[in-house]
Amino acid sequence: MKQITQHYRTGELSLKDLPAPAPRSGGVVVATRASLVSAGTEKLMTDLAKASLAGKAMARPDLVRQVLDKAKREGVVSTIETVRSKLDNPVSLGYSCAGTVTEVGAHVQGPKVGDRVACAGAGYASHAEYNYIPKNLCVPVPEGVDDESASFVTVGAIALQGVRQAEPTLGERVVVMGLGLLGQLTVQLLKANGCRVLGFDPIASKCDLALTLGADAACSTGLIEAAEAFTEG
Questions:
Q1: How far is CA 17 from CA 79, 121, 122, in A?
Q2: 22-47, pLDDT tens digit by residue?
Q3: What is the pLDDT of residues 124-141, one digit of tens each?
Q4: Cα-based angle 186, 190, 191 (whole degrees, multiple of 5)
Q5: What is the DSSP string of the chain?
Q6: What are phi and psi of 214, to 5 degrees?
Q7: What is the DSSP string of 185-221?
Q8: Are 153 and 118 in contact (CB under 8 A)?
Q9: Given this model, what pLDDT does residue 56 score?
Q10: 193 pLDDT exceeds 60?
């Protein structure tokens, strides 16, 4: 099968011929019909991979801390070997797709061969002709929803989880900072939840879009003043 991978040391992208995944217990194999390219997340990953080691370290201080902690626990030599292995192993790209179930693993109830499903998860819902997907990371695609629309499932789930974590209540006033795709979805979910929404993004056209999608107010500058007015102090 064909799969897009990236060499994490050099940043080189490749279209590889790889063995198709086998079904495993607790999951299904899905033939991809549409795979979402995330302009933000995947560009960040490709830019990071192309950076020097110093650049990688500056961009991801959290990983540097993990490496230092590992060196304290397991020694410098073992840690260096692990880091080299990580850098030299190609990584899969993609985290949201839709397709058709071709094989079902043991202990899986629900999905059947031939079912259309939307799939999520980095390392699972990759840009590949076939993917192994754990059952809890795939959902049936309703009738009337095309494959391309279904491939956005993870983006919608991320926005929905953000709203759930915030636990907004009816009538609350909420600021959504950043009106990209996730922000626009969040605006709509908050409005459906009975909230009043102020959107902010430095790009004015995104503010205009948020207003058409239900935001009560939006601004590209002066957020503090706008928030004071929106909340009446």
A1: 31, 22, 20
A2: 999 999 999 999 999 987 776 666 66
A3: 999 999 999 999 999 999
A4: 120
A5: -EEEEEETTT--EEEEE-PPPPP-TTEEEEEEEEE---HHHHHHHHHHHHS-HHHHHHH-HHHHHHHHHHHHHH-HHHHHHHHHHHHHSEEE---EEEEEEEEE-TT--S--TT-EEEEE-TTTS-SBSEEEEEGGGEEEPPTT--HHHHTTHHHHHHHHHHHHHH---TT-EEEEE--SHHHHHHHHHHHHTT-EEEEE-SSHHHHHHHHHTT-SEEESS-HHHHHHHHTT-
A6: 120, -5
A7: HHHHHHHHTT-EEEEE-SSHHHHHHHHHTT-SEEESS
A8: yes
A9: 54
A10: yes
- Those residues with Cβ within 8 angstroms of residue 134's Cβ, 6 or more apart along the chain or in another chain: 26, 27, 121, 124
Tokens encoding 225: 């003043």
Amino acid at 108: V
The token pair that represents 26 in the structure block: 């607790």
Rg (C-alpha) for the chain, rounded Å, is 21
Q: What percent of the chain has pLDDT over 70?
A: 86
Read off the tokens for 230: 């929106």
Interhelix angle 181-192/153-166, nearest 10 degrees: 50
C-alpha distances (whole Å) from 83 to each of 63, 123, 213 are 10, 19, 45
